[in-house]
Amino acid sequence: MIDVTEVITLRYVVEGNTVKCYTEGLIRFDHREIQVWYLDAVSAGKLLNFICNKIINGRMNLRVDQTIADFALVPFRIVDAISPRGKPAFQLTYERKHPAVRRSSLPTLKGIQSHVEGRIICDRIDYTDLTELG
After folding, report:
1. Residue pair 81/35 in contact by the 8 Å Cβ criterion
2. 107, 121 in Cβ contact below 8 A?
3. What is the rounded average pLDDT of the residues 75-84?
4. pLDDT confidence tier of residue 84, bands split at 50, 70 and 90
5. Which of 21, 41, 82, 131 has the fewest CB atoms within 10 Å around its CB?
6. pLDDT tens digit string along 49-78?
7. What is the DSSP string of 66-80?
8. What predicted TM-score, i.e. pTM, was given to this entire model?
9. How far apart are the C-alpha atoms of 116 and 105, rounded to whole Å?
């Protein structure tokens, strides 16, 4: 079994008020890279590591319009995208008004993104505590 955290790198990019996270390394396994926007670092990292593990160790193939519903209560739909390196990629989209999506924020780094006023609003996925949903 391959430890995906050792073979796949997660990159985080802040652009304006948007947080993006994408994989680097899936191409070595003949798969498109994957990206997700708006999620905080913890939620994005857990989601992408979960999916990379299914791709590499579970031999799952992703396809456009497929829905991933076994990570959290929030279903993620796969759409076509372009990676930051200009190659075809998959992007995970989700309903931002879903009850399991919580608003969160990240502090901005000094000197970087100075046009953003102090914090970046992003989403957090509740995937373990079902009682929070009521």
Report:
1. yes
2. no
3. 95
4. confident
5. 131
6. 999 999 999 999 999 999 999 988 899 999
7. -EE-SSSSS-EEEEE
8. 0.83
9. 12
